[in-house]
Write a structure and sequence with these properties.
This protein is of the alpha+beta class and 125 residues long. It has four helices and five strands; from the N terminus they run αββββααβα. The chain has a five-stranded mixed beta sheet. A hairpin with a 2-residue loop joins strand 1 and strand 2. The longest helix has 12 residues. It is elongated, with a radius of gyration of 16 Å. The N and C termini lie far apart (42 Å).
């Protein structure tokens, strides 16, 4: 007689705060890039993302005049930070919406993804 198997645990979920903390610490924009300010909405909360002089800053609430506006879920943004090209698929299939200066957003995504040869996440020890 076979013993019943325990179900697999649910897949872990990524929260907005975790993704934004990762973005703030891993995002290293090129100091020569122009500064930018964007509005990012994740899980029904709005954040200001600023890049300037090689730094990324995150603050709650939206900026008065953002250069871009990205609305998505935390998992989609996390995937785009790891592989920026995945954002195009998310925009096509409706998991994300975007308006504004796409170049500013692309520079932000590349600032994280270029930190590691296998994407935005640092190699495991």
């Amino acid at each position: 007689m076979r013993r019943p198997r325990a179900p697999f645990p649910p897949q872990p979920t990524v929260g907005a705060t975790s993704v934004l903390l990762f973005l703030r610490t891993a995002g290293r924009p090129d100091p020569g890039d122009p500064p930018s300010t964007g509005r990012v909405e994740l899980a029904e909360r709005v954040w200001t993302v600023r890049t300037a002089a090689g730094r990324t800053e995150i603050a709650p609430g939206g900026p008065p005049a953002p250069e871009y506006d990205l609305r998505t879920d935390p998992a989609t943004l996390n995937a785009a930070l790891d592989a920026p090209d995945t954002l195009d698929t998310a925009l096509r299939d409706g998991r994300a919406t975007f308006s504004g200066d796409r170049g500013a957003l692309d520079r932000l995504l590349r600032a994280v993804a270029r930190q590691s040869p296998v994407g935005g996440h640092p190699p495991q020890p």
